[in-house]
Design a protein that fits this description.
Length: about 180
């Protein structure tokens, strides 16, 4: 048995973590937290390109750990794992900040398979926290466009998640139901 893996991606402050948590609650499963938050809270915001590789490896390890736990504990015929951030986020982050991406991240993008991407749009108000870097709406729109282009150029189903939190959850549940029913 394999878990269906749903990755929630998009620019910062677009409700990815909230959506993951709500979907996990709705489907009575686990979700993978964004490893970068943990790492940056511990090490600070003065990160390097090498730090992003460390974060990417930590994200994959966390994803594998949670997926294994879901497979062991799930009573569902279709186990689900919701993943807050995957290697597309790392690719965009690396390229946007450092103008290059680690080969390891690109290999993970090539080799790891997901069943659905939920791309969170930038139509929610930006919320300040100690880790967020891009309050400017134009930069957020540019980042969203980069993600959208990546989604259009790959073969896994994806859905644009927009609207208020309730609308986002409804869109996400409809998309997930289509891949499990």
């Amino acid at each position: 048995m394999q878990a269906k893996k749903i990755a929630i991606i998009g620019p910062e402050s677009t409700g990815k973590s909230s959506l993951c948590e709500e979907l996990a609650r709705h489907y009575e499963t686990l979700w993978v937290r964004e490893y970068a938050r943990e790492y940056l809270l511990l090490h600070g915001m003065h990160y390097t390109s090498d730090d992003l590789l460390t974060i990417a490896k930590g994200q994959i390890a966390l994803e594998d750990q949670v997926t294994d736990k879901v497979l062991k504990e799930s009573k569902s015929a279709t186990p689900l794992v919701f993943i807050d951030t995957n290697m597309y986020v790392m690719k965009v982050w690396c390229e946007f900040v450092f103008h290059k991406c680690h080969a390891w991240v690109l290999e993970q993008l090539r080799d790891r398979k997901y069943d659905l991407y939920l791309l969170c749009n930038v139509d929610l108000p930006w919320v300040r926290d100690e880790l967020r870097e891009y309050p400017d709406l134009e930069i957020r729109k540019k980042l969203y466009s980069i993600y959208r282009k990546l989604m259009e150029d790959q073969s896994t189903p994806w859905v644009d998640i927009h609207g208020d939190y309730k609308e986002r959850l409804t869109l996400a549940i409809d998309a997930v139901d289509k891949i499990i029913l």
